[in-house]
Amino acid sequence: MPTPTPPADLLRSAAALAPELARLRHDLHRVPEIGLDLPDTQALVLAALEPLGLEVTTGRGLSSVTAVIRGARPGPAVLLRGDMDALPVTEESGEPFTSERPGVMHACGHDLHVAGLIGAARLLAERRADMAGSVVLMFQPGEEGYHGARHMIEEGVLDAAGERVVAAYGLHVVSAEVPVGVVTGRAGTYYAASDQLFVTVHGRGGHGSMPHLAADPVPIAAEIVLALQNVVTRQWDAQDPVVVTVGKIAAGTIDNVIPATAELAATVRTFSREAWAAVPDLLVRAVEHIAAAHGMTATADYVRGYPVLVNDDGETARAARVTEELGLAWMDAPQRITGSEDFSYVLEEVPGAYVSLGATPLDVEPAGAPYNHSAQARFADEALPQGAALLAALALDRLAQG
Q1: 292-330 core/surface letters (b: 16 or more CB in 10 A; e: else)
Q2: I want to staple 10 with a disulfide (CB 3.0 to 4.6 A). Which of 16, 24, 152, 389 is the partner?
């Protein structure tokens, strides 16, 4: 039986790939694309995979790429994921490989995710003789609000090897707070669920000097904004937090005209499946009853976003152990992340672990660096071989378990 590759050897092999991975990352960074249709990104991924001789398929309804690496011996299948889409941000990073597309930027580091997964594919393809089982590579568009992971699951990515994967792993680079060479994560809930609440208060327009002859929806909308905060602090357990942020409120055209409607939009973050299920009714009821108390009506549209991302206890322990065996540093995440992540759809189906990888540029202090989604965000190329080695090591370690 072949001897498995020690994790430290994987990191050394990945380091040898670093120049190629950096070039690929820079090429990806120059041509960012948004949403589910990423033809240029997909083409770069397909070109990078072509020499490896893998089983490669593309999505039917989106620009996804799925590749299967089959080991020399039978065994289970595991999944590694890298998301590919960018954000509608005008880049101000000053990087020499800055975006060539105005108003679009890889501000969340997904270019590193893609290049790192290509690196993992290279490492695993070189070790097929040592593998008992298969690795599914999930190159996913549409993470930034487009439910790309759900679409890929519906198109069969979890069964791409001919059987359901038994575990799934992914990582997210961060441009601040965490230095290069440090991996963080936690068992249980790691990322929040993210939903949206859209409200329209229906009043009756009139002259601003005579509000008694109209039905002014503006103060009612303002009252709703405050009431939503009371709902989550007074009607829900503080040990299971809920975050409601009203990011938009709009009404009227001029100071002396009472408008007929007022609108607001809010993001809702929850950290448990129980809160995710119960909070919509609480918020919608508050909206409707406040409007009714003032003789008006309000329509509330609660839109489900990404579910809670829950890391498996055993797979998180594996991630911590493998990280340290690679020679990287593991740090238990001190708190859950209020951001959301659609890898949660995958982890609802199979056990796995999602971790954060430090990619703060070496020339800045992590505490002061611009964070992901900033127009000034920069990410260290030095994280690329580390991410590639970590993903490959997780897959090999799980396959060795049988």
Answers
A1: eebebebebebeebbbbbbbbeebbebbbebbebbebeb
A2: 389
Minimum mean pLDDT among 1-15, 30-44, 359-373, 382-396: which range? 1-15
Comparing C-alpha atoms, which of 165, 21, 24, 139 is closest to residue 82? 139
Separation of alpha carbons 53 and 157, rounded Å: 19
Domain boundaries, the chain: 7-190+309-401, 193-306
Question: 7-190+309-401 adopts what CATH topology?
Answer: Aminopeptidase (3.40.630)
* CATH number of 193-306, picked from 3.30.70.360, 3.30.365.10, 3.30.590.10, 3.30.360.10: 3.30.70.360
**What pLDDT, on the 0 to 100 scale, is given for residue 2?**
47
Any alpha helices (H) in 31-90, and if so which ranges? Answer: 39-49
Helix (H, G, I), strand (E, B) or coil at 280: helix
Alpha-carbon distance of 117 to 82, in angstroms, equals 6
